[in-house]
Known about the structure:
Largest sheet: none
Shape: globular
Order of helices and strands: HHHHHHHHHHHHHH
Strand content: under 5%
Number of domains: 2
Number of strands: 0
Amino acid sequence: MNAIMIPTSAYFIKKFSFRHLFIVFSSIFLVGTILGAVANTFIMVIIGRMIQAIGTGMMMPLVNVLAMQYTTRSKQGAVMGIIGLAFNFSPIIGPTLSGIILQYFPWQYLFILILPFIIAVVLLAIFQLPQIETHDNPKFDVPSLITISLGLLFLLSGFSNIGQTSFFSWKVLGFTIAGLVLIVIFSIMENKSAKPIINFEIFKHSQFTFATVINMLIVLTMYGNTILLPLMIQMILHKSPLISGLALLPGAVLTGFMSPVSGRLFDKYPIKRIVVTGVLIDCFGTFMQAVIDVNASVLMLTLGQMIRQLGLVLILIPIQTHSLSALPKKYLSDGVATFNTLRQIAASFGTAIIIAVITMADKIITGSTANQAVGIQAGFLACLGFLLIALALTFKLHRPDIVD
C-alpha cells in the first residue's frame, strides 16, 4: 500500500496545500494505528497496517518536497539530514524496540505506545503548520493511476514470493512479468499525457538518474541485511530475538547521531568524496559479517553492523539530497515520488533476493548449523556484490548545474 501511494504523491502535492495534505494523511495514519491497537483478529491488524501505509506513503514524499523546495541550496543537506534522522533511524530502531516490547508486553502495545506521538503530530500540524498554497492544477488520470498501482502490486507480490516457491513458478515469474509490463504501459501513457502523474523528463537529468540507481542498490543491501543479521544471531548462534534486536541498537544509535552530520557534510564537501567513503565503509562492514562463522560472538556481528550503519548514513542522506538538487523545482514532486517508489521496489527486491540466495545455498549445502551458516554468509556476499556495483557508479557523481 505504501509503494502504491507514493507514486500518486506527485499529483496530490501539486494539487493541494502542504498543510491540508499533512493534516489529512497524518490523521489517516492515526486511524490505522487506533484500529491496530483495538484489533482482535489478524485481518483487522492487516487493515490497520494498510491504513497506516496510506498515511506514511504520502507524508514521506511531502516532507521531502517541502524541505527541498523551501530551503536554500547551501542548507539543503543539513535540513535533509534532520529529516533523514527520522526516516532512516526509524526502520533500524524499529526491530530493536519491537523485540523489547514483545518480550514484556502483548503485541497490541506495538500500536498503543506510538499513539501519543501521532496525536501530538496531528495537533502540531493543525496549530503550527503554515498555509503554503500550490499553483498547479494537474489532471487526475484514473487509468494511469490504476495501471501503476496494479503494476507495483504485481511486481512486489512477485518479489515477495521468491524463496517461498520456485523462481520459475507463476507466483514469481507471472506476477513479476505482469508488474513490469504494466509499469512499461504506465510509462508510455505518461509520456503521451499532457499532464502526467509523474513527469519522466526527470530522467534526462543524469545526476538524478545515477543517484537514484545508486540509492536502489544501497537500499537493496540494507533491507537484505535486516534479514541476515537476525537469522545469524538466532539460528546460528542460538540467541533470543531480544538479543538480535539489541545487536541492532548500537548501529541505530550511531545512525541517529550521524544523520544530521552527514547532511552538513553534503553542504561542505563534493558528493563523490562523501558517497565513495560511505560505500567503502559499508563494504568493509559487510565483509566482516560475511566471514563470521558459528564460533563468532554477537559482539563481532554488532561491530560489523555499526560499521555498516556508519557507511549507510554517509550514503543515503547525501545521495537523496544530491538527486533532488539536480532537478528544477518544478519537477521536485515528480522526483521525490519516483525516487521513493524505486526505493520501495529495491527494498522488496533486496529482501526477496537475499531470501532466494539463502534458500539456494541451503539446498546445495544442508545439515549442520555450520552448513546453515554458509547460506547466510552467501547472503552477505551477495550484498557485498551489489555494493561493489554501487561503488563503480559513484564515480559518475558530480555537483549538478544549478537549475531552477
